[in-house]
Write a structure and sequence with these properties.
Length: about 80
């Protein structure tokens, strides 16, 4: 996780996790383990903010934009 990036929908910045206490890590590990064992994934981890960024050319054409998505920094990574 890079510093200085936007926070996710839940308002947590990467720096907050990096400098968190042992109790924070323990609690986050507990939530992730529950998700991996079939419990429901927190709703905030399912939310994505999408913004369009103009790349080049006329701003009138959708093809001249690219999407940027902001997700939760606590979101579980998906294996590919």
């Amino acid at each position: 996780m890079k510093n200085g990036k936007s926070c996710g929908p839940e308002g947590i910045y990467a720096e907050m996790l990096k400098h968190g206490t042992e109790k924070l890590i323990t609690m986050l590990t507990w939530v992730v383990n529950r998700c991996l064992n079939g419990e429901e994934v927190p709703q905030q981890w399912k939310v994505t903010y999408i913004s369009l960024i103009h790349k080049k050319g006329s701003k009138e054409y959708f093809s001249n934009y690219r999407g940027i998505s902001v997700t939760s920094v606590t979101e579980m990574p998906v294996s590919r």
